[in-house]
Design brief:
- The protein is extended and about 75 Å long.
- The protein has 222 residues and is mainly α.
- The chain is built from eight helices and four strands; from the N terminus they run αααββαββαααα.
- The longest helix has 30 residues.
Length: 222
């Protein structure tokens, strides 16, 4: 079964954040619209669902690392702040925000205390994360299959495109194979590659000796 380790972080975090929001079980503080996520920030996050996104990131880190604590999350969610002409420095994230997210995930059973301190992913949380990872992986495979079918001229869309002679869904269409390989100055279609090459040679080929003869003894233009 696919796990969060097999799926890209951004895809998994978006999918799991949507799952947490749909479930409605995650406790959201009343200060999420005004709080800063770190000392390096000037304003609150623009995304109204940032708390779900951060909670999904915390759950993913707990799954991958095995054990997490607030100090670990301060580094993970910290940022590199610009300081004008001075070198950048890494600033840690807000410890209060990380602690509140960990407590909220623990209340809904995604995290549980670790014997050596900190938190770890629970069995229920691991089952949910594996299920979300499987759904994301299936979505990626379906999309890849649709793109492959479109590129190779397979599928219903390709048959419609072939019937209409268009490029969408197939490589060049049904009968006029070179319909979309057009001359820059002419929008006609070519029945074969030889016809296309012949048209290009006629339009762009130049004979230096002919130019020299036309110049009546002058130096060739080349």
């Amino acid at each position: 079964m696919p796990s969060p380790k097999d799926v890209s972080a951004d895809r998994f975090i978006r999918a799991y954040a949507s799952h947490l929001k749909r479930s409605g079980k995650l406790e959201i503080p009343n200060w999420v619209d005004i709080v800063k996520t770190g000392v390096s920030k000037e304003l609150a996050p623009y995304d109204p669902d940032w708390f779900y996104v951060r909670a999904a990131s915390v759950a993913r880190n707990a799954y991958i690392r095995g054990r997490i604590g607030t100090a670990d999350l301060l580094k993970v969610h910290g940022v590199s702040k610009r300081r004008g002409v001075r070198p950048r420095h890494h600033f840690a994230a807000s410890g209060s925000v990380q602690r509140k997210i960990v407590q909220s995930l623990e209340k809904i059973g995604v995290l549980e205390p670790h014997p050596d301190g900190g938190r770890k992913i629970s069995q229920e949380g691991q089952r949910d994360l594996d299920r979300i990872s499987t759904a994301v992986m299936q979505r990626i495979r379906i999309k890849a299959g649709q793109e492959y079918g479109s590129a190779t001229g397979q599928g219903r869309g390709a048959r419609r495109a072939a019937a209409s002679g268009g490029r969408r869904g197939g490589e060049y269409g049904s009968q006029k194979k070179y319909k979309h390989i057009n001359d820059p100055h002419d929008h006609g279609a070519f029945e074969s590659a030889e016809a296309l090459e012949s048209r290009i040679n006629k339009r762009y080929a130049r004979d230096p000796l002919a130019n020299a003869e036309a110049g009546a003894g002058d130096e060739p233009s080349w």
